[in-house]
Amino acid sequence: MTFIIASIGRSGSTLVWDLIGQSTGRPQIFLKDFDQFALHQGKVIKTHDRFLSEPEFEYRAIFLHDEIVNVIASLFHRHLTDKNFQMNVHLVNLNIRYLHRQVFRYITQGGRHFHHLRATLAFGYLIIGDKFLFKQNSASWQGARQCLTVHYHDLISQKERTLQAMSAHLGVPLKDFPVRARESQTQRLPWIIRMLVQFNYK
Fold first, then answer.
1. What is the rounded distance in angstroms from the CA atom of residue 138 to the CA atom of residue 6?
2. Reduced to 3 states, what is the DSSP secondary structure of residue 144?
3. Centroid of chain to Cα 22
């Protein structure tokens, strides 16, 4: 049995990935591309890639998600405040097209000068037309036969119930785990970004 932890990012996937790895004692691996999964059967796989087709091996998947505005707000905040956060690496892991990654990089380069404005323009570019691929990602995993969808906030507000549901789906007992409510950064988003999210992710 192979365990797959998928998400659109910033939705608790690392927490659940570590939880399942520790509970099962199986090796954990992050894979960017769905096509690589067959080479790592029996492991606990974390990915941000889309679900392409039913694999020939046995698997159980958990897809974690949050409201898209919260995901974007978290990314925007980390991009602006966390010097160790590599946004371009994250975009690669999301399998965003090379052209879009280069445009984002071009807009945001230039040190701290007008950093907030450049970030607003760059994020706006990726939001328009869902260049983040958030909708495609979510829809693809919801079509997988052996996938349980879990909302990030259920890990907090209904942790015991959610833990039981994940354990039953995976067929393995899961240990309790610490999780804290993440402070929402949504209200700190520029108004134009909030409007673009509302328009593009109805």
1. 9
2. coil
3. 20
Residues 123 and 192 in one domain: yes
Cβ 123 vs Cβ 193: under 8 Å? yes
Report which of residues 38 and 181 the model is more confident about: 38
Same domain, 102 and 189: yes
Distance (Å, whole) CA 165 – CA 161: 6
Q: Is 145 exposed, middle or buried (0-12, 13-18, 19+ CB in 10 A)?
A: exposed
Amino acid at 103: V
Domain that holds residue 144: 2-67+138-170
The pTM for the full model equals: 0.94
Do 90 and 120 fall within a single domain?
yes
Rg of the chain on CA atoms, in Å: 17
> How does pLDDT run across 102-113, given as a tens digit for each residue?
999 999 987 667
